[in-house]
Specification:
63 residues, rod-shaped
Length: 63
């Protein structure tokens, strides 16, 4: 009987894949927010920023 490492257990159970996917999603969200901040500083209306970033107008107005 071979022992599995902690990392192997996580990989086999799907946790590592799940965490990677969540990390990528969080990264994409942060990128959208950063883009929206820059566009807002450039003076674009919140409605146009929302259309280009898929963020809500409310989120953009609170940046």
């Amino acid at each position: 009987m071979s022992k599995l490492t902690f990392e192997q257990v996580l990989e086999e159970s799907g946790w590592i894949t799940k965490w990677r996917a969540e990390g990528r999603q969080e990264g994409r969200q942060e990128e959208k927010l950063e883009t929206a901040r820059k566009l807002k500083l450039m003076g674009l209306p919140a409605e146009q920023i929302a259309a280009g970033t898929d963020l809500s107008v409310e989120v953009i107005k609170n940046l």
